[in-house]
TrEMBL record:
It comes from Asparagus officinalis (Garden asparagus). Keywords: Membrane, Metal-binding, Transmembrane, Transmembrane helix. This is Uncharacterized protein. The lineage of its organism: Eukaryota, Viridiplantae, Streptophyta, Embryophyta, Tracheophyta. GO terms for molecular function: metal ion binding. It comes from the Eukaryota. The chain crosses the membrane at residues 58-78, 90-108, 129-151.
Length: 191
């Protein structure tokens, strides 16, 4: 793709499809003077992109961890005795878990829903579809069990901590993946 800008040409190319020689030939064939050429590979990742991605994943992971640990700790007997009181038809511990996990599921975990939607729209499945499906099943079952218990008075177990901890562990894995990719690309650049 060639874009002309006052004696400058910007060349965007896919290195697997086009070599540097063909770029030079294309510029020479279209030029009638001296040009300044900027060659850019849209698929190459810069160090700042890697650092930005790693930082974003780390912040998502830490946020999810901070919200998921209390959900897990509420189940412990010495903490549960403080939050095991009724608030109308609900138990306070269940409401706390519902609120905290909703943030993890739909704010922090939004990236999984967006990526899953894109994959399904393209007719494929990937890890994001699996994470979105699995955590949604756990989350929505827990919401239904909570509401059923509030309406009927028969308490059913909820599994809110399952969805939040799954999202947290997957984000931790994504952090490790981004760091590994960065180290691999750095090693390749040094060779």
């Amino acid at each position: 793709m060639l874009l002309h800008h006052h004696q400058e040409i910007e060349v965007v190319f896919v290195p697997e499809a086009t070599g540097l020689r063909s770029i030079v030939d294309a510029v020479e064939s279209q030029s009638s003077g001296k040009f300044k050429v900027h060659v850019w590979n849209p698929y190459s990742r810069t160090v700042s992109d890697d650092a930005r991605e790693a930082s974003k994943m780390f912040h998502l992971f830490i946020s999810s961890l901070i919200l998921s640990v209390p959900v897990f700790l509420i189940r412990l007997p010495y903490i549960n005795c403080f939050v095991n009181k009724n608030l109308g038809p609900f138990i306070i511990s269940d409401l706390l878990k519902w609120v905290l996990v909703s943030i993890v599921q739909f704010v922090i975990g939004k990236r999984f829903y967006v990526a899953a939607y894109r994959a399904l729209r393209n007719g494929s499945t990937n890890m994001d579809v699996l994470v979105a499906l699995g955590t949604s099943a756990s989350y929505f079952y827990s919401v239904c069990a909570l509401l059923y218990g509030a309406i009927t008075g028969f308490s059913s177990p909820t599994y809110f901590e399952t969805s939040s901890m799954l999202i947290t562990f997957v984000l931790f894995g994504k952090c490790l993946e981004v760091v590994a990719k960065g180290k691999t690309s750095d090693a390749i650049k040094e060779e």
